[in-house]
Amino acid sequence: MAFYRRQTMVSSPAQLSKTWIRNQHKEEILRDHIVHSILLLAVATSSAAWAQAVKVTPLGSHAGELCMRDRATIFEDPTGLRILYDAGQSVMGADDPRLGNIDVVLLSHAHGDHIGDLKMKALDAGTCDNPQVVSAAPNSTTAEIVAAKNAAVIMVVPLANFIGRKVESIRGKPTTACSPQTGADVVAPLAAPCLATVQTGGTRTFKASATSKAVEITLVPAAHDSTVPIALLGDAERKNLEPDNVSLTLGPPGGYVIRFTNGLTVYLSGDTGLHAEMQTVERDFYKVNLMELNFGQSALTPEGAAYAVNTLVQPAAVIITHVNEGATTGGKVRPTSRTAAFIALVKGRPVYPALSGKTMEFDGAGKCVAGC
Ligand SMILES: [Zn+2]
Ligand SMILES: [Zn+2]
Question: What topology does CATH give the domain 53-370?
Answer without folding.
Answer: Metallo-beta-lactamase; Chain A (3.60.15)
